[in-house]
Amino acid sequence: MDGNGRWAKEKGLPRTAGHREGINRVKEIVKTASELGVGVLTFFAFSTENWNRPKQEINMLVRSLNSFLDRYIDELHKNNIRFKVIGQARPLPERIIAKIKKAEDKTGLNTGLVMVLALNYGSRQEIIDAAKKIANSVLIGELTPEDLDIETFSNYLYTAGLPDPDLLIRTSGELRLSNFLLWQLSYAELYFPKVYWPDFKRQDLEAAIQVYQNRDRRFGGL
After folding, report:
1. Cβ distance 117 to 86 under 8 Å?
2. Among 50, 66, 79, 110, which one carries the catalytic annotation?
3. pLDDT digit string, tens, across residues 22-54
4. How many whole angstroms separate alpha carbon 136 and alpha carbon 52?
5. Active site residue 50
6. Is 136 a residue of the active site?
7. Beta-carbon neighbour count of residue 130 at 10 Å?
8. Which residue, 193, 159, 183, is CA-closest to 41?
């Protein structure tokens, strides 16, 4: 969800205003995706590198997340949407970690759209964490090196149990993955609209899906 800060700057607003408007887009896109029959929708909300941003901006993002968990989870649950967070818990505040757990438990049996929030997430760290878990499984005899294949490795990632993405959308025209789902995106279609995230609305998601539907996915075949 790229471009919040630039969107705000171009309008003469503080960066925090861009993030607040970005949260409104999350709500709209979740609703739209659910109506369109999308199975899983993952938002890259906060990376492990984002802790290097100004403290004021980080505090605003944490407050916004806290407000989102307080106000929006009931609506997700009402609409049969399952909520899941991927990433490292620490150093998120304990109150946020507890609310995330509560939200995941509350919506865990829902059967509609799965809304995934990548929070304090970095794909390289995810792969390292998976490698550590695999090494430990080998040490205690649960796994042998010969057992390891693509499916088994995937089951040690934060996204275990979720399908790999079909489509990656990165807004604002930036043409890079920025350490996001590097393993899982191996065969995804990539789409880079120039619109900033706060301006990415229903029609933009529909346009992205239409572009995806017109692509020929061969997965290495003919």
Report:
1. yes
2. 50
3. 999 999 999 999 999 999 999 999 999 999 888
4. 31
5. yes
6. no
7. 18
8. 159
